[in-house]
Each structure stands twice: as C-alpha cells, then as structure tokens.
C-alpha cells in the first residue's frame, strides 16, 4: 500500500529499520525492466513453447537503517511500540512515518522517517531519518546500510505468484566504500546485466557526531541529551547496464549520489512536489460525496504514475514495481487499460509506452516465425524485454488478440493526438507488421466466412476456441486500420510509405486481403438470444453451477482443473463486454444491454480486469446501480485488498480501470472514428465529480454535478465534441460551456 | 530388435561383453511395473494437473561378461571382429550370438552366447557363454558380473523420450557374495521399492578351472589348449518388493537362482521351447507369398508375448520392456490394440490385463474427484501404478475416451468368452463406475443433444474439442453396455447386483440417465460431405498445406507449435476411422468408404497407432492395394525402423495392429452384438494365410487361399459365424468347412 516508485525504482512499503523482524512482510525493491532470464522447463515438451523466462529481480534493499541506544537495538525484540503513524500525501510524494518506541528499561525514542523515490531523477531515492531521545540522554548509534543478500519469492501452487529461481540471483562483482557510504556492484547469472547500488549518508542535528564505515554502509554515533535529535540523510542510487554501458554503471551511481548530496533532501522533496503539482493539474479526478472512493481513485492514479516505465525501453508490469506477482511481466493490460489513462492524462508517457512496443518488433517478428507465420510480427503475451514468457500457452501465446490490442492503442493515440509523425516514424510499422498475422492465422470456412481458429480471447476461463468474438472483431478493426494507415501514408507521405513497405515487403495484394478478410469476418451472433457469442461453442456449453459453488472456491482457477472450467459456460472476465467498449460504435444500445445481461450472469470477475469494464457498460446501458457497484469493486480493489493478493503487488490494470470507470463509465466519454463524445451521468451518492482529458491538442476539464455538466478548455485552441448527442464547441474565446443534464 | 523379455524382465539386445564399448547402443534392463516416482513440476501451475510421474527404471545390467586372453581384454580396443552372427528363433526363445575375434597379435577366439529370459519363470534369465581358443593355447579369464551403476535416459526435445531424473536412481542397500555369484540389493528414493538382482555362475568344459569372486560377480580362469572351450552358465534373477514383501526379496532371488542352477540351462531352454510351442499353436499367423511380412508378423507377435505383463498388477507399456520411450507408461494402446490380440490368441493374458484395470479402480476414483466428478472413476491416460502421469493434459487427461476404451475391452471379452463370472466379480464394477463419468462430463445443449465438450479424441493433432465423434460414439456404447450389464446382473445375479450397486451407490435414475444420454447423443455428421465429423469444428478448420510441407517436417509435432497444428484440418492418426472399426455395425459400407476417403487425405500417420486401422478399413471398403500398403507400414514398422525411433523401444500397439490387420483386415473378422463374422480376402501377392482365434470356448483356425477359406474347429464343442454373410456352423462332428471365396 505504501510502496513508492518512479516508474523505474520500486520500493515496497516495508520499514527502513525492521527488515527481518518477526512478522515483517516481504521486503522488495525492484527496477523496472531489470531482469534475470532462466530456461523454462516443461515436464512434457512441445515445439515452439516459450523457452526463456524473463523475470523481475528483487534488488538490494538500500533503505536499511538500524538504531541502537546504549548498545541496545531498537526493535521488536527489546522494545515496544508506543505510537505509530504512517502517511503518504499524494501531493508531496513523501512517505512519512513516526514511531515512538519504549525500550526495555524505559528509555523512549521517537523515529521519524521521510522517504521518497524521485519522480524527477530516475535512479535516485532518499531517506530523511530523525531519531529523538525523548526521556533520556544516552549514546545513540544509527547504521545506514544496504542489504544485498536478497532473494525472490518462490513459485508455489498459485500460478500468479513467484519465480522458478531459488536463493540469491545476484552475484557480487565488487564493492567500494566512498567515505560516506558504499557502492555495491553485482551481476546477474544469465541475463548478463550489471547492477550498481549505492548509498551516500550524512548526519546532523547534534554537535559531536562520529561517522565510520560499517558492514555495507555507514554508522553514525552521538551522545544525545534528552530532547535532542540526530538526523541522518541517506541518498540511494540504482543504475543497471540495461540503462547505460557497463563501465558507466558505477560512475553514474556515484554522480547521481553526488548530485543528490549536493542538492540535499529538501531540494529533492521540493522537486517531488513540483512534479506532482504538474501531474495532478492534468490528471486529478475529483469526487464529492464519497471520500473512500475519492481516496481510491487518487491512490490508483498515484500508483500508476509510480509504476509506469517512461523511457521507451520499459513498460508497466501487471503489478507495477510493487511486488513479484506475475514476475514483473508486461501484458495487454498496458494497451487496453493503462494506456488510455496516460494518453488522456499525461500523453508523453503514453507515447513512450508505444515506443516500447516499437522496440519489441524484432523479437515479435522472431516469435511469429517460431509460430510458423512466414510474415509479420506476433507480440508476446507476457514479457519484459520482448521474449514470449508465457509458460502455459492456452492462456498465453494463444491470446493472439495482443496484436490487435497494440494496434488499438496506436489508433486511439492517433485519434487523440493527431500525431501522424509518430505513425509515420513508428506506428505504421507496428500496425502493418502485426496486421499480417491475421491473414496468417485466419482462413475461410466452407461458407466463405473468414475464421480465426484455436485462439484464446481475453476471458481465460475459455481457452483455445474458434472465432472468439473479441479477437475477430478486434482483428477486423486492426486490419481496417492498417489498410487506412497504408492509404494515408501512401497519399500523404509517399517517401515514408516506400520506406516502410520496402522494409517489410508489403504489397497491395496483402492489403486487399486484409480488406476482404474484414468484410467476410465471422462475428458469432446468436439470433435466438440476440447476443454476440463469445466464440463458436460458448453457448453450447453447460452453464456453470454457481448455486452450488461455495465462496471459498473462488477464484475458480485455484479449485478446478482447466478442463472443468473450459467445458463450462463461465467467464473469468469481460470478453464480449470489453468489445462493447472498445468497438463502441459497432453496437446498438439494445445489443449492448442484452450482451451485458447475458455475460454478467456467467462472469466470476476472478480477474481484476473485469469489474471496471462491466461498470462502464452498465453505466452506458442505464444500469446505474450496477455501474456504481462494479466501480466500487474496482476503485478500492487494492486499498481494501478485495482480491486477497495485494501483498504480491498492486493491480495496475484495475487502477487504470478506475479512471476509465469515471471517464468512460459515468461521463460516457468515447473517442472513436465518429469523434469525441460525452454522455455524463451522476452517481446517486455523489454531489459532483470532475476530471480532465488531453485531447486534440487541448486540455479539457469536465465537471458533472446534479444539474449540469461543465466543459472547460484549460488550454488549447478549440475543441468540438458532443454532449449526449448535442454538439459542443469550445474555443479560447468561449472556453466554458455548461450543458444541462439529461 | 533382439530384446528379450517375459512380460516382467526386459533385456535390451545389447551384447553381454560390450557394455560401454565405443559405439555401443543404449544398455537397458527393465522390470515391468517396477518404477520410480517423481514430482512433476510445471513452469505455470494449475489446479488438478498430474502431480506425480511414475516411470520405469533402468535396473542393473546382470548380463555383463568380460573375456581376457593372457590378460588381454577381448573387445574393440584391442581386437577385431572376424565374423559375427546373431539369431533369435521364435520357436526356441533363445538369442544366439557367435563372434570370432582376432586379438592384436593374432590369437583368435570364438564366443558363442545363448541367452534367454524365461517365459515360465517370471524372475529368471540365463546365459550360456562359450569361449573357444581357435588358434592358440593360453590363459583365459571370464568375468560374469552385474553392472549396478545404471542410469535412465534424459528427456530432451522429443516429448516421447526420456525421464526427468539425472544420475543413478537406485541407492545401494547391501550386497552379498554367495560363493557362486552376488546378490545386489537396492532401493528407490521415492517410490520406496526394494530391488534384488542376483547372479549365480558356474563354469565347465575344461579340467582345471579356478573360480573366484570379482567386482560384483564371479571370475573363472583356465588354461585352454587350442580348440578347447570354456563354458560359463550365468543365471540371473530379479525380484522387487512390488512382487513380494521386502523381507522376501533377497530370499526369492536366492531360491530362484538355486532352482535355476539345479535345473540347468538345458532345462530352461527346453521349458522355453515348450512354452513357445504352446503359444504358437494358439497364436501363429502364417503368410505364404511374402517372407518379409511373414517375418514381421511373427516378430511382432513374439514381442507382444515378451512385453505383456500377466500378473494382474502390470500391463503392457507402449514400448513393452524394450526401451525407455514413453517412460514405460501404459496407455489405451492396451485395450484397443493389444488386448484383442491376446483375447483371441491367449485369453488368460487378456483377462489379467483387465484385472490390472480392476486393481486401478481406487486410483481412478481419486482422479475423478480431482477432476470435480462427484461420482465414478476416470482412468489415467498414462500410468504405471494407476496415477495419472500425463504432464500435458490436452493430449493426456483430456482423452476421456480411455474410460470407454476400457469398457470396450470388457465388452469384447464378454462377447468372446461368455465369462460372465468375471463380469460379476470385476468387470461390472469397472464398467459401471467408468460409465458415470459421461453423465458427469456431458451436458445437454439448447437443441437437446447430449454433448461432451472439452475433450481430446484419439487424434492428438486436434485437442480439447467439443463432441469428438469417437468419444461420443464410444461413450454411447459404454453407457448402453453399462445399462445392459446392470440389467443382466439384476436378473441373473441379484446378489451380485445388490453388492455392486450398494458398493458404488448406483441407482436406477442414473442408469436411466445413461440411456437418455445415449439416445440424445450428439454424433456430428456432415450432410454435404456425407461424412462423420471428427468434432464440432474439424471441418471448419483450414486444411493442412501438405503440398508445402517438406518430408523432414514430419512428424509435425516436432516442427510446429501445438496451436499451429490444432487450428488445421490435420490428423496424427485414425480417429473417426477407428470408430468405424470398433463400432462396425453402426455404419453402412458407403459411410465407411466416404469417411475413409476424407480422413485418409488429412492424416499424417505420425502416430504408430494409425496405419493398421487404415489398413483394416481399407480392406473392408474394398481398397485392397491401400489395405496392403498400410499393412506393410505396420507389420515391419520396428524391423525396418520406419518411424526412426525403434532405438527407444518397440511399438507394441502397432505390433498388435499387425495381427488386427490380418484378422480384422484381410479376413474381415468382427465380433459384435450381431455375432462373429468373417469376410476374408486374399492380398494379391499372397498364396495363402492362416490364423487362429479363441472364441466362444473354441479354437478356430482360419485358412484363406485363392480359391476358398477353410474354417477348422481345433478344439471346443461347436461354433457358429458367418462367412461373407453366409452362416457357417462347425461342431465336433463336422469340425471343418471350406467356403468358396467371393
């Protein structure tokens, strides 16, 4: 919950001074993209299975502090806690903790720590650590060190947690004491990375302080009078050879520490505040009428900002940089859940997420060849550096929709920003290469329908099926978008077109084949029920016996063999219902309602990706209570630990889904080929809510209250959209309009 | 090729005296049913996956012999082979080998070995080893020993070969020298078995022989004059605690060795001959006109006899006891391929195979619970001692048809033998318990059809599909048979009925549900093509591009990701075509021909279980040339190593398929509810063929030549059947009839 991060460094919310104490929770420090690799061993092998796992490593814990009073360690073994408080102000970005200890014998100390991971300095974190002698005068010793003997969690029965390695993964490669701390260098066994972890420490507050080296750190001793405070500032830097050349790792640790020491803790805290002020000015969502939800929404936004990689080489893991669930892998969660949040709140980060995918194209091409596709690129279902890491292909590699999801995010990026330069330079190649997979995997059946067989859609309780509606519909969108990109490039930027087409060997016949496949795409629809079928066979399966499934048997995946789940009509998460959102214009509202009604009954929401989507569609089809209920489940999922696994890391997709729930859900925002539109409703419990979106070059603030919706152009030239179907135009001359509620 | 076995001991055909020589092939000695267990580790776990692998261990090599002349070892390092011959006469059951060596320096010795694994003595094997000084007189030393430092093959890329353990699997538990040899006791690490391996040796042939102990064996030394022969007899016994109590292992080794020594090699060879004379009198297939095929057929029959367990605790592994392919696992191969051969050739062995399944019922019940079936039993797809060992469930646990296959074999047993006592005592409980799975897994669709979803049929290139024709049709047969068994028990043996029904909690409603499911079973049929669909979606898939698949890309499973294979119309093996055989009466001949025509085009026969079935149906539908061609592929599969993997063990199912190809194929034999029938044809190349079948209490000889078919009742009271539809009745009064060919 109190994990800190800056999109690169992630520090779990554990205490500086209680590592290894009885009852202490999992320590963890992670660096986005920094990973080890290990061969995947299958008990029964098959051709083309993912061979190499990339997984996030737990890196040295550089926040360790240890306090002694007259030689007596302050900790649970010989002291008790008198008072305790922690807080994290999302405007400050500093984790504040105050503890009062009473030691055996009665001496009382107060420890105040302030910790930050610098948003503005990728490699740097810092701690201000203040110890006050409350009722005594005595010798105080504070050790500030690095614990480099860390290990990763072990995989157990839950497939969502843990890695295959045991014991320390980082091999020592040298350590250097600097006179104010230490720099530890380590290397990974297989992935060949070098990692530098450094600390630089200084103490102040009393006259006579003795400083000396201690094991992997620096110790400060002073004799405190009653009421006096000894303060230690500890600056931390992590650099790996994934960021810079190997020989620059240690120098960069040193220079980042130098700069931090020179600037001082107060300057870092001020930078932090400035960064966040800018962020909230663009991204803040306000909710009046439900403080718990307000907290949940901002908590989630804050964690997204902390978790997302923004250097074009990293992405956002399912658990951000907060825990080892899913081994630090990136999934489609990025494109379908997280990307829109950043696109509309902090577009430069959205762009860097797309650049990450561009960087992954060569690996995706390799993977396509392994999967017997002679052309095109197939993105990995889960990965860090681009390798397909899914060791259970039915809910991994089989999810070919990842290609369409990436293309969808590029399409949305183009619609929101109009940035065709990006398309010409990066996006087109991604979209075109990944579109080719559909004519590779698909085929025409005897009725002349274009079918996509043996794939898995978003719903992982139904695997390796034919004509998954979501996949087929998204493939249509993808191929049509690819064809339109090709047309536009050809006419607007013939040089770029020539370059891209030549680079990937694309010809007109292939583009024509995409258009034909789109036109003939099989999109399963059941006339009798008037609903879209999740796949060719979903409706023929036996409905799951929910009435006789005890609560403790959820999530089903931990209690039933995959075959048992697969042969039933039961969904882990939104599948058709997600298509209703992403391809919103292709459905009538009655279709959406029938689909929602049907799929709601068979969905367990065992995936944290589900409730937010159901909330949005419920809002759209007029189920205000359900929309609110599903939103509640999403918005405080981690704060209330409703999935009982937040200890393995936060759920970044659900966090982004919360923002989607406000903008797409309650405010009915859609950005489609038909333009931008809103259809705001106000949840009964709320008095007012407001959010902001970057779109079409402007920053728009939307404020909804009981009577009306206010639209204000905060910057930008002009903006046009619809409000419940009625056209609205804002401009610098007329930057605000208030529209009556429906 | 020269492996020996007796259904318990299996010795690969490696030489006694060349273990470890350069270029020597895999040494291996196996004991049917003797296995180690090891946890199966999945890179991504799921509920209910098979947890424990049982795998056959390579046990100590007790056939080792080493010869030295004047201290010079006779072997490839310091000698060359002058002449060499090996032979195995299937009437003798003794592997004979003669080698003449010329040592460096010019001395020549002849080594003649005769080796047998006693058919009549489960635990015993023996070697007669004769060394003759051809052109010299000199000191000769022969060491007869046990090599107990053996290991299993390692698993590699081919999923069909090797195990997960590395290094020696057997831990030493003691060794005892007996004055004529040694008894080595070892134990397994996990499965907790004790193994005793013993040898007892004696030498003869020259006057002065010095005997002494040597490392793990016994050494004999003598000075030979030119032309003299030193003979060593080595008796071997293997006993494990899977056969007897732990404390009886070593005593039984000792007493079996005692008895063998006392009886002597000649007596063992005579026993062997008598056993085989009896076997061939019942089982021999004669073919005139194709010596290579004649050899293939008998080779296969002989290997089946060598491979099959017959103690009710063991079964027949995919590779018999000849190699480590498929880790010594038993599959459905037993019931569908091997069982009919023994049923008609040596019915007491067939019965013991069914008893093995009866012994496995408790484990099969456990497995059914793990698979969320509240009632019934689900047999493991692959196993040794009853545990589900399939580590890739789509081509393992998903093959629910295993239950119907077992029931089918019991039904065939009852039809052939009329042995209802066996049904009452064992068979009914198997059939009823396994039938319950179908109403557990199946469900009614919206059209009121009973569907079986998410299973895999025999064809492993199509996995986890809905309404696999074979599975559904066999489930029908199974449930109908179960209901009829229940009826018959109830009326003929009310006490047995009460006992069985009470033991498993079976009531009339459940039996009624079976009958209803049968009546409503979905059996996919395509009206346009007039063929049975392999499953609901098979015909909608893209046909495999055979034209552009190079020969080296077969078997496909080693060159394409499962998803690539699964999404195409391509079969590894007979699936619908197998149903045409097993449920013969349910199809018209035109149906069979159309099905054959269609499925032949899409089948790779990458499985060795395929060609024999295609041969049989080809014969039935009048494709004589194809029948012969497929028969050729089956009959000499191992002799000619056509699948390029005979080194990992023989293909017992294909071997039995050869017999099926003669009886079911060319002779058109069927035993169904409609009775016994023949419809013999004579392959163009043959002058004559003959085979024998135990059926209805008699032993019938069928002889087919160009003009007619002769039916002779060799023993039994009377027998009635049809010949090309015409009734034939044999009796003691009239034991022979000759029927004109069609």
From TrEMBL, chains A, B:
Query: Could you tell me which residue ranges the Glycoside hydrolase family 65 central catalytic domain spans?
Result: 298-659
Residue stretches making up the Glycoside hydrolase family 65 C-terminal domain: 669-730
Which InterPro entries does the record cross-reference, listed alphabetically? 6-hairpin_glycosidase_sf, 6hp_glycosidase-like_sf, Gal_mutarotase_sf_dom, GH65_N, Glyco_hydro_65_C, Glyco_hydro_65_M, Glyco_hydro_65_N, Malt_Pase/Glycosyl_Hdrlase
Protein's UniProt keywords contain Transferase: yes
GO MF terms listed in the record are: carbohydrate binding; glycosyltransferase activity; hydrolase activity, hydrolyzing O-glycosyl compounds
Domain (Glycoside hydrolase family 65 N-terminal) spans: 1-242
- The superkingdom listed in its UniProt entry is Bacteria
Q: Which UniProt keywords apply?
A: Glycosyltransferase, Hydrolase, Transferase
Q: Which positions bind substrate?
A: 332-333, 572-573
The alphabetized list of GO BP terms reads: carbohydrate metabolic process
Q: Where is the active site?
A: 460
The Swiss-Prot or TrEMBL record describes its family as follows: Belongs to the glycosyl hydrolase 65 family.
Report the protein name in the record: Glycoside hydrolase family 65 protein
Organism of provenance: Telluria aromaticivorans
């Amino acid at each position: 919950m109190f994990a800190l991060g800056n999109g690169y460094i992630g520090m779990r919310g554990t205490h500086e001074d209680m590592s290894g104490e009885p009852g202490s929770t999992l320590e963890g420090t992670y660096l986005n993209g920094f990973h080890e690799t290990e061969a995947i061993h299958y008990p029964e092998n098959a051709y083309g299975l993912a061979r190499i796992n990339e997984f996030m490593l737990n890196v040295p814990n550089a926040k360790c502090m240890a306090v002694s009073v007259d030689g007596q360690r302050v900790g649970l073994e010989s002291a008790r806690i008198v008072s305790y408080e922690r807080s994290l102000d999302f405007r400050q970005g500093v984790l504040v903790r105050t503890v009062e200890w009473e030691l055996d014998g009665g001496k009382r100390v107060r420890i105040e720590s302030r910790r930050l991971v610098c948003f503005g300095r990728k490699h740097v974190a810092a701690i201000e650590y203040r110890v006050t002698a409350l009722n005594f005068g005595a010798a105080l010793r504070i050790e500030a060190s690095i614990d480099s003997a860390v290990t990763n969690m072990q995989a157990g029965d839950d497939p969502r947690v843990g890695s295959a390695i045991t014991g320390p993964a980082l091999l020592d490669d040298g350590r250097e004491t600097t006179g104010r701390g230490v720099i530890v260098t380590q290397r990974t066994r297989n992935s060949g990375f070098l990692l530098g972890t450094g600390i630089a420490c200084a103490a102040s507050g009393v006259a006579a302080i003795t400083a000396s080296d201690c094991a992997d750190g620096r110790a400060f001793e002073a004799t405190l009078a009653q009421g006096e405070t000894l303060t230690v500032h500890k600056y931390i830097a992590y650099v790996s050879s994934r960021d810079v050349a190997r020989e620059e790792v240690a120098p960069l640790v040193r220079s980042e520490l130098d700069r931090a020491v020179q600037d001082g803790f107060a300057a870092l805290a001020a930078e932090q505040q400035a960064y966040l002020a800018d962020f909230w000015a663009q991204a803040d969502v306000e909710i009046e009428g439900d403080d718990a939800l307000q907290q949940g929404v901002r908590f989630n936004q804050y964690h997204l900002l902390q978790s997302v990689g923004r250097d074009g080489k990293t992405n956002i893991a399912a658990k951000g940089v907060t825990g080892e669930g899913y081994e630090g892998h990136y999934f489609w969660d990025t494109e379908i859940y997280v990307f829109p949040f950043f696109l509309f709140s902090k577009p430069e980060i959205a762009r860097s997420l797309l650049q990450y995918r561009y960087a992954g194209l060569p690996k995706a091409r390799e993977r396509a060849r392994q999967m017997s596709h002679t052309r095109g690129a197939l993105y990995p279902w889960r990965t860090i550096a681009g390798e397909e890491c899914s060791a259970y292909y039915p809910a991994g590699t089989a999810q070919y929709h990842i290609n369409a999801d990436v293309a969808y995010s590029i399409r949305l990026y183009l619609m929101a920003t109009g940035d065709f330069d990006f398309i010409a330079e990066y996006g087109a190649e991604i979209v075109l290469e990944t579109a080719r997979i559909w004519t590779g995997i698909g085929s025409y059946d005897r009725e002349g329908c274009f079918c996509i067989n043996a794939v898995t859609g978003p719903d992982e309780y139904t695997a390796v099926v034919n004509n998954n509606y979501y996949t087929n519909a998204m493939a249509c969108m993808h191929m049509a978008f690819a064809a339109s990109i090709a047309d536009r490039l050809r006419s607007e930027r013939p040089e770029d077109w020539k370059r891209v087409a030549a680079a990937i060997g694309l010809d007109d016949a292939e583009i024509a084949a995409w258009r034909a496949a789109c036109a003939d795409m099989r999109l399963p629809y059941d006339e009798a029920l008037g609903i879209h079928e999740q796949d060719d066979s979903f409706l023929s399966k036996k409905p799951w016996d929910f009435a006789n499934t005890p609560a403790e048997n959820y999530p089903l995946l931990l209690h039933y063999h995959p075959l048992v789940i697969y042969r039933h009509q039961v969904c882990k998460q939104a599948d058709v219902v997600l298509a209703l959102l992403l391809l919103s214009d292709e459905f009538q509202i009655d279709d959406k309602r029938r689909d929602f009604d049907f799929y709601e009954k068979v969905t367990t929401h065992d995936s944290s990706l589900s409730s937010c989507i159901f909330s949005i569609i419920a809002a759209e089809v007029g189920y205000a209570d359900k929309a609110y209920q599903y939103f509640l489940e999403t918005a405080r999922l981690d704060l209330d630990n409703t999935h009982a696994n937040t200890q393995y890391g936060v759920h970044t997709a659900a966090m982004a889904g919360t923002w989607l729930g406000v903008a797409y859900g309650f405010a009915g925002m859609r950005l489609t080929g038909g333009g931008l539109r809103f259809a705001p409703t106000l949840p009964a419990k709320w008095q007012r809510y407001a959010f902001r979106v970057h779109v079409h070059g402007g920053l728009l603030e939307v404020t909804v209250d009981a009577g009306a919706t206010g639209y204000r152009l905060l910057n930008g030239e002009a903006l046009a959209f619809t409000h419940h179907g009625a056209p609205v135009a804002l401009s610098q001359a007329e930057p605000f309009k208030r529209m009556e509620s429906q």
